[in-house]
Sequence to fold (260 residues):
Amino acid sequence: MTTGFTPDAVDFFSVLHSYVEFCAGFPGSLPETADFFRRLKFGIANLLIKRLKEADPRLEAGSEYLDEVVQPGNIVVTSNWDFGIEHYARLHGVPVRWRGRGTRTGELIVLKLHGAIDWTLGSEAQIPRFGALEFSPLNEQAFGPGYRVSLPSGKERERSVLRMKALEEWGSAWRRVSSRTREPYSRLLAARRRHRDPHHAAGGGSARRGPRGDRRAQPGARRPRPLPAFPAARGPVELPSGRRGLTEVMLRKPTSLTGR
Fold:
């Protein structure tokens, strides 16, 4: 056994998540691994919210970099679990949506490839205890004049990804996240189980396994447009959108909001 070794956080979570998905429950497997993984997610959520609150004075003062990113009409694509971008948008009066586009153009679209600490599967949401008004679908606009979108019902609700309204009550954000779900919806690239999450199919179309295991688009499926190579420098990279007035922004490795 190697002592003093600290694994990369993403590698650790990927291995742990794969173990929970495929190995837990088999003879000889470690007990309570799924519960440990769940509690670890809550621990990370607690830390991220705490760090973000510590950064509030700097975020309220404004940032030239974030002002460029958090613009109505932009699309931000991020793999981060925190909600720093959305929080900055709320502080500076920019409406946000996490899926789809409304009839209004004055909003920021945030696509979160790996989920978020304030997201939950409908099957894990504590809706009976706190009520449907404490949750919203990802296509409901926040921090703006957009209309309320009703939650799905029945089996569709259980499979859907919902947002807990923690940002709207920033003073009690951690209390809301920790009580409104049994487990935050934060995923990893290693995940194989596919829920009806729109961001798993962000490229459009569907796919099947080829004879050698490669993923091939089904006939008639829309192929995703390849992305250009990203420069090493941090910051936003504009992608051709093909739509007037829309700037797509990819955050490869965004600058830390907290300065840490």
